[in-house]
Amino acid sequence: MPALPNRLLPTDAWVRLALVPILIFVAQASDRSYLADFWHHLARGREIAQDGRLLDHDVFTFTVSGQEFQDVNWLSQVIYFRLFEIGGLGLVQVVNALFLAGTFALLIGLCWRLSGALPAALAGGLVAFLGMWQVLTLRPQTFSLFLFVLLWIVLEKARSKPVWLLVPPVLLALWANLHGAFPAGLILVGGYWAAELFSYMSNRTGTESYPTGDKAYFWQLTACLAACVLATLANPYGWHIYQYVGLTSNRATQRRIDEWLPPSLDEWIGIAFFLSLPLVAGLVYVAWKRGMYRPNWRDVIFGAVFLFLAARSVRMVAWWLFFIAPLVSILLARLLPKLADKPEQHEPNRGAAWSFAALTLIAVTALPGLQRYNPLFALRPQERVEGDLEALEAHLRTHVPQGRVFSRFEWGEYLSWSAWPDYKVFMDGRIEIYPDPVWQEYADITLGKERWQRILEQYRVDALILDEDYHAQTGLLPLVLRSPHWQRVAQSRNALLFVRSDRVATK
Predict the structure, then answer these.
(1) Contact indicator for 120, 95 with CB cutoff of 8 Å
(2) Which CATH class is domain 385-505?
(3) What is the chain's mean pLDDT, rounded?
(4) pTM of the predicted model, to two decimals?
(5) What CA–CA distance (Å, rounded) separates 438 from 123?
(6) How far apart are CA 476 and CA 29, in angstroms?
């Protein structure tokens, strides 16, 4: 077979652009960790698709059954369920992995466009990826990350071609039905608008990285921002959707949910946040001292807003990392002229072809059904927590054909998907719908407080599915093991099933 001509071969630029997206795709498509904050979305997507209407009240729990709520993720949930119908969990994971890989491909492309240096753009993309890899998982937030970067690219294009300002309202209308982080998109559009306003009001001539305060462009951005705000109201709940966003963030913070707390050194994303501060500050200072960089209005506004948000919540660190990626790329390109694009990196060559082929092979063997051929996955755990819960569910059905189950709320999500309607759970991941008394009751049981057994009796709980490690640490497991009211009937790795003793005795 004749060799391909060089002009058809990949280039070094191809390899550099593909590196981070392929790493993300491989990690996400082959992830076997427990999918917290996914299964209850899939369960709701199933009910919406099958009933043909929104599920805006609780049906999965026995503690807040009938409780009304706003399901701002409804479109994500339907998409997940339709994908699951076609190809199971594997297809859902692959599509989610493609979106995340595409997000970082777009981000690196944006960094390249702004910096003019592909190596610097790759460095900026790596900073963002390494900082947030811990929070990249299968959940509706994936759509928010993708739309954020896509919206940023559109706004950059609009600086030279204002007709692109017709696109942001469309993206915001879609975003408001996919995930509750759509206000981040409004912040992005609002930041461009505010930067143009300050440039216009101060009569500055701008900098090389931001346009001058143009009156016509300012009013076009004003109309775009207004249209974006109105577009977010194109959802089943209208303006009340903003109440949901506020309620969720406030309750999650009050209840000390990890991702809603300020960054700390206990988690990698918190460490990454604190490391990013001296990195950005140092690059800005050196470039400023050398006369290579002068902060523009957009950088000042976004820096202040996203830094403030990130300092308050781990969940917001992603937007800060997205913001600094292009900034780091620009500063590196100016401080290190050797990073500038060179003609040879766009020349097809066989070395790049072999590298690109190897990356492609790794990505292909991360697909479901092919992972056993990838030696990188040989040491990866083969069992999933979901499999353990499914095994316990089978044992539960032999003792309690229908009933009420208490578990940690992360596991309640999977049980809502797999065991409903025969079984209802105490709590799942929708933390915003549980009033404070129910949350306190969940905490008292989990921590083995004095009234833990009385609460279970009050709710007529039939079974406990406990985590051997987690509930041993909280103090609940030793109490259950000593209690005459509960009998252990099955175990699958760390998952333990306890059934009320009277139900086991009358089997």
Answers:
(1) no
(2) alpha beta
(3) 88
(4) 0.91
(5) 47
(6) 35
Residue with tokens 């739309």: 147
Structure tokens that stand for 378 in this block: 């040989």
Residue 311 exposed, middle or buried by CB count within 10 Å (0-12, 13-18, 19+):
middle
Distances (CA, A) of 115 to 150, 189, 208: 18, 21, 12
Alpha-carbon torsion (360, 365, 318, 149), positive or negative: positive
Residue 14, φ and ψ in degrees, nearest 5 = -55, -45
| Range scoring the smallest mean pLDDT among 26-30, 232-236, 325-329, 377-381 | 377-381
3-state SS record for 113-182? HHHCCHHHHHHHHHHHHHHHHHHCCCCCHHHHHHHHHHHHHHHHHHCCCHHHHHHHHHHHHHHHHHCCCC
Is pLDDT of 3 > 60? no
193-202, 208-217, 381-390, range with greatest mean pLDDT: 381-390
Which amino acid does the sequence have at 503?
Answer: R
Q: Three-state secondary structure along 380-439?
A: CCCCCHHHHHHHHHHHHHHHCCCEEEEECHHHHHHHHHHCCCCEEECCCCCHHHCCHHHH
Q: Confidence band (pLDDT; 50, 70, 90) for 191?
A: very high
Q: For residue 427, what pLDDT band results from cuts at 50, 70 and 90?
A: very high
**Is the pLDDT confidence value at 359 over 60?**
yes
Task: Give the pLDDT mean for 388-399.
Answer: 94
- Please state, as a whole number, how many other Cβ atoms lie within 10 Å of the Cβ of residue 9: 19
Cα 412 to Cα 116: distance, rounded to the nearest angstrom: 49
Strand partners, 498: 464, 488
Main-chain phi, psi angles of 38, to 5 degrees: -125, -45
Q: Which amino acid is at 389?
A: L
Q: Where are the domains of the chain?
A: 7-36+70-344, 385-505
- pLDDT of res. 457: 95
Under a CB-based contact definition with an 8 Å cutoff, are residues 497 and 389 in contact? Answer: no
Element (H, E) at 472: helix 470-474
Residue 344, burial from CB neighbour count under 10 angstroms (0-12, 13-18, 19+): exposed
Look up residue 61 and give its DSSP letter. Answer: B
Consecutive H or E run containing 240: none
Query: Under a CB-based contact definition with an 8 Å cutoff, are residues 318 and 263 in contact?
Result: no
CA distance 100 to 289: 37
Give the mean model confidence (pLDDT) for residues 376-401.
Answer: 86
**88 Ramachandran zone, left/alpha/beta (phi>0; psi -120 to 50):** left
Closest CA to 368 of 135, 101, 81, 31: 31
Q: How confident is the model at residue 353 (pLDDT cuts 50, 70, 90)?
A: confident
What is the C-alpha separation between 259 and 318, in angstroms, rounded? 11
pLDDT at residue 6, rounded to an integer: 59
